Automatic annotation (TrEMBL):
InterPro entries in the cross-refs: Bact_solute-bd_prot1
Species of the source: Paenibacillus chungangensis
Keyword Signal included in the entry's annotation: yes
Domain of life the protein comes from: Bacteria
Record protein name field: Aldouronate transport system substrate-binding protein
Coiled coil: none
Amino acid sequence: MKSKCKLSVMLSMVLMGALISACGSASENGQNGGSKPAATAGTQKEETNAGNDSGKTSGNNDKTLDISMAYFNIGKAFPNRENDEFLKKLEKDFNMKVDDKVISYSDYQEKLQLWSVSGELPDVFSHDFINKETYYTWIEQGVIRPLPDDLSAYPNVEKVLSLPDTQNLKVDGKFYMIPRLTYRDNDSWALDKALVVRKDWMDKLGLQEPVTYEDYAAMLTAFAKKDPDGNGKDDTIGLTFRSSSMLTSIAMGTLPNVANGSWVKEDGQYIPYYAAESMTNVAVQMRELFASGAIDPDFAIMKTNDGIDKFGQGKVGALAGQATPNALKQYKTAWEKYNPDVKFEDAVAVIPVSWANEDGKRYRFTNVAFWSESYFSSAVDDEKMDRILQLYDYLLSDEFLTVKAYGFEGVDYKKEGDKFVITRDKNEDGTYVGFSEQYPSLHYLFGPLAAWNQQMEYEDSEINTINYGEDIIAMSHGALKHHLDNFDPIPTNYAIQFMYTPAKTKLGAINPSEDITKLMLGKGDPAAEWEKIVAGYDDKGLQEAIAEVNEKAKAEGIQ
């Protein structure tokens, strides 16, 4: 390959009137929210509107094609194909049969690697390895195929690949994937890192909302040590986590880039965040918080979402996770299971995930507009690629967003002017039957296959009011506005973040989160231990990567 890659990303910072949850799952009573087609198109700036066209099929689809797919939740997508009207309509409209190859969040990397060796990769599969060594290796070896140069027949796909965050993701002038957009702007990530705290416990213990590291440490330790539930037992936890990815985010006040894993500029050169001088302070603080009892003693062995159940049981003072409408709804559901007589919104509050730095500045989470990508096996011929791209063009359309949110007109809803009136069946408790039961292929596969569309959670729509309730929406929207108005986004140079160099791709062998976990559980001097750990990264190519990146940045004029 002549020039492996030039991924120079200029971010689109478009403020949103209302906003999501990263990678939280869809609501059981619907999808990730919804909006009217016209409202979706009209509320986005032109350069970030990836869904204006209808996504109708563009070719002659006389031949029925079998298309194999592997997506994170696909194992739940086809419990009964004959009863899934969405699946039957989709397969008829595109004249295809979908063959599922099951992967999950816990095994997708291993399975896809195995299938790549055995020549059994599905036609379409999800992965998150862009800009990593395996990505370039698979391109060089012809494991994955490029998209056509001319995408004009698929206008919604073309728009996604023309966004500021994606238009320069080509390798040797070709796209080898379709990025799965999380939001349509970068500000909407703000509540993907937040703390949901027991404000009733804070009131009982006489605690004000924390600002400094010392404030956070005191609050979390008090939750664990001062019997905030008043039962006379030592059985409460200060801070727990929705997932392991939230662990070091609580220290973003000390080093903002620890939250999104980006490179920082220090002493005139770019370095990975974990090589920054202030990372030593992060290590010290994380050890202090754990040693003091502020952090869940079981954090290292917990599974994703275990923390939500602990919080619902009323044993945790603070949960580090998302604070989007969908996430808050999940927490509320867990809460009501154990606390039916205490209103969730009266007991909790959303506060920043981390403290202010020494200068009093606070940061909010931000990231590139997508997480994970769709790839296509090199065994896919041009005819099948055309059919797949027709499908993706539809899945990226505003027409599909309405289906994702509301289902089929005349079956699941009716229109009264501009208003959507839900008509689908209800459960015994009065809630609507969820699409996870009614259209499982939509809920678990096709809904998020081309894009997460988590911006839908923040839109003012009938389905969001049904899915989340007015109180949850008000809590999340208020927290979002506060974060956007008062906190700075993490300073991130995405041109550096997505830059390719041979040594940089090999840094995947370094796992700073795992090393921080071991350090927290240890007994030695955390500062000395961390410096030793970072010195060991040199054996994994750290200095070579730093040198290559800075040399290339200089050559390309990246400041």
